[in-house]
Structures are given as structure tokens and as C-alpha cells.
Automatic annotation (TrEMBL):
Compartments it resides in: Cell envelope
GO molecular function terms noted in the UniProt entry: carbohydrate binding
Entry superkingdom: Bacteria
One Pfam family in the UniProt entry: Peripla_BP_4
Keyword Signal: yes
Protein name as annotated: ABC-type sugar transport system substrate-binding protein
Database matches in InterPro entries: EF_Hand_1_Ca_BS, Peripla_BP_I, SBP_2_dom
């Protein structure tokens, strides 16, 4: 489905003129585009690669990027967005820390006639006119791919051969789109096999340290663990440290499934310490700058731009690693 800028102006920006819709007074003067980008934080290898992609792509496109790091706090992102509105940037882009609670600030951007592009994470709102488009992954599908691998490998994943596949889940940041959707997709698929059960589930906040701490607690409190499902590589890598410290062999004594496929995760996968990774690409910068230029120029943009992604086994990781960009 396509949204024309005319439709966007009417719907999203309250019927203003095309030129005013795409560019603020500040940016229109010399024809250059100013983008305000409110990043989630620097919680993971994925996020670092995403920030690099956005900063490098802005430079290549000649877009003046105002960048802020919210340290995984919604209130910080809201402050940044308000500051971008005050500065009259041409376009605001952000990756929302959590799904809900954005309507008020997005209404302010709409009143200021500044288009908003969502990247990586979506918002949960009834009013889709508050943003122009979303560029990023299908997180439900990522969870489904993780679940499908486990269903297909259920027998080998019943490590203690007691007829039950006990999974502990390391969730991403509470209330974030990837945590909610990766959980949902995984649960939907594993429900087809009654042997597979999630026996413990807690947030590790998408960080390596969080994954390690939660896994340490699981190893103490949850007697039989066959599988770890971590919502990202970093938490899986933290879990590996905890498993080794408990005298067990990650990937063998406890199977590990993660999401992202950043270099550190792929290295652990190739070494057999992780068993399966679902890819989530952080390289969204080029598409974002392209969309920003189109929105400002009054061209059509799709409502939804979904990233194409794959999955990796240990063999595939070993093959892909030499050319891995992030
Ligand atoms: O929103 C994408 C997720 O955020 C990545 O999977 C994770 O690593 C990051 O922190």
C-alpha cells in the first residue's frame, strides 16, 4: 500500500501545503534536509551497528543529522523529540523504546507539521496518521522462525531425554515491540508441540549483563533447562557466560536460540555455543535516508517497509562470517 504525500499531508499533517508538509522553514532555505533522530540507546551490538548505519547513511546522503541516545528511557526520547520540534527539523525519525505512550508527543509533531518516520520498532496507536511510515523487521515472524527451529529439532533439544523440552526465555526490554512480538511468534509456533514448555521467562533488557544475571538466577531456580530462547544475541552471549560458570557446555548441555546475527553472536554460533540464530538486520540507515528525501520532496512512500532477513545454523554462520558487515 502506498501513501502519497498529498494523502499524508491531509491525514497526518492536518491538510497543510505540500512544501510545508515536507520541510520546515529552517530546512527549506538552502534545500538541505535536517533530520532529528531519537535512538533507543547503546544496549547491544545490534544497536551500535544500527547507529553506525544511520550516521554513515546520513553523511552519504548529505542529510544534517541531529542524533540523541535515550539510554533506553522513554522520557528521554520524548524530550529529544520535543527538542527536534522546537528546532523545526524537516523530519523526525525514531526507534521507540516501548510501544505505548507516544500519542501526545506525536500530536505535537503533527501540529508543528513535521513528518515522523518510525524505524526498527513500531508504536501502538489507534491513530496511524501520526507517522508517515515504518521501516524495520517483522518481529513476530522472527519469533516464529525461532519457534519453528525448536519444533523441528525438539528431539535433539530434549537434552536430558525426559520427554519434555524445558525452555527458559530471556525477554527483551519490557513493553518493547521486539520483546512482545518475538515472545508471541515463538509461543504461537511451539504450542503445536505439547512437549515444549516455557518454564521461566524474564527480561534481560537486551543487554549482555542482563542476560547473564537472569540466566544465573534461572540456573539456580529452574532445575531442568534444555533450551534458552534469548530475544537477542547479547543476552544469549551473557547466558553463555553464566552456563559456563555453572560448569555446563553451552550449545550441548543447554541449547541456545537467539535473534540478531551480529558478529559476536555469529562467532558463538559457528563455534557451536549457540545452535540457531534468526537474523534481524540493523542496516536501516540507507532506507531511512531515502524515505526522508522522498517525504521532503513530496514523493510517494509505502506505509510499511519490511526488511528481508534469513536464519543461520552453525555451518551457515561459519560461511557467512568472513563477509559479515556488523
Ligand atoms: O529493536 C531491535 C532490537 O533491539 C535488537 O534485536 C536488539 O539487539 C536491540 O537491542
Amino acid at each position: 500500500m502506498k501513501k502519497t504525500l498529498t494523502a499524508l499531508c491531509a491525514l497526518a499533517l492536518g491538510g497543510m501545503s505540500l512544501s510545508a508538509c515536507g520541510s520546515s522553514e529552517e530546512g527549506a532555505d538552502d534545500g538541505s534536509i535536517t533530520m532529528g533522530f531519537a535512538q533507543v540507546g547503546a544496549e547491544s551490538g545490534w544497536r551500535t551497528a544500527n547507529t553506525t548505519s544511520i550516521q554513515e547513511s546520513a553523511k552519504e546522503a548529505g542529510i544534517d543529522l541531529k542524533f540523541s541516545d535515550a539510554q533506553q528511557k522513554q522520557e528521554n526520547q520524548i524530550k529529544s523529540i520535543r527538542s527536534y520540534i522546537q528546532q523545526k527539523v524537516d523530519v523526525i525519525a525514531f526507534s521507540p523504546v516501548v510501544e505505548t505512550g507516544w500519542d501526545a508527543v506525536l500530536q505535537e509533531a503533527k501540529r508543528a507539521k513535521i513528518p515522523v518516520v518510525l524505524t526498527d520498532r513500531a508504536v501502538d496507536t489507534e491513530d496511524t496518521s501520526l507517522y508517515v511510515t515504518f521501516i524495520g523487521s517483522d518481529f513476530v515472524e522472527e519469533g516464529e522462525k525461532a519457534g519453528q527451529w525448536l519444533v523441528d529439532n525438539a528431539e535433539a533439544s530434549d537434552v536430558d531425554k525426559d520427554g519434555a523440552v524445558n525452555v527458559v526465555e530471556l525477554q527483551g526490554t519490557t513493553g518493547s515491540a521486539p520483546a512482545l512480538d518475538r515472545k508471541k511468534g515463538f509461543e504461537d509456533v511451539i504450542s503445536s508441540d505439547s512437549k515444549i514448555k516455557i518454564t521461566a521467562s524474564q527480561t534481560g533488557d537486551f543487554t549482555r549483563d542482563g542476560g547473564k544475571q537472569v540466566m544465573e538466577a534461572f540456573l539456580q531456580s529452574t532445575p531442568k533447562i534444555d533450551v534458552v530462547y534469548a530475544h537477542n544475541d547479547d543476552m544469549g552471549l551473557g547466558a553463555i557466560e553464566a552456563i559456563k560458570a555453572a560448569g555446563k557446555k553451552p550449545g550441548t548441555d543447554i541449547k541456545i536460540i537467539t535473534v540478531d546475527a551480529v558478529k559476536d553472536g555469529m562467532t558463538a554460533l559457528a563455534a557451536g555455543e549457540i545452535n540457531f540464530i534468526v537474523e534481524c538486520s540493523p542496516l536501516l540507515g540507507e532506507q531511512l535516508m531515502d524515505v526522508a528525501e522522498k517525504v521532503v520532496a513530496g514523493e510517494e512512500v509505502p506505509d510499511l517497509i519490511v526488511t528481508e532477513e534469513t536464519t543461520f545454523t552453525p555451518e551457515q554462520a561459519a560461511e557467512a562470517l568472513p563477509d559479515r558487515k556488523y
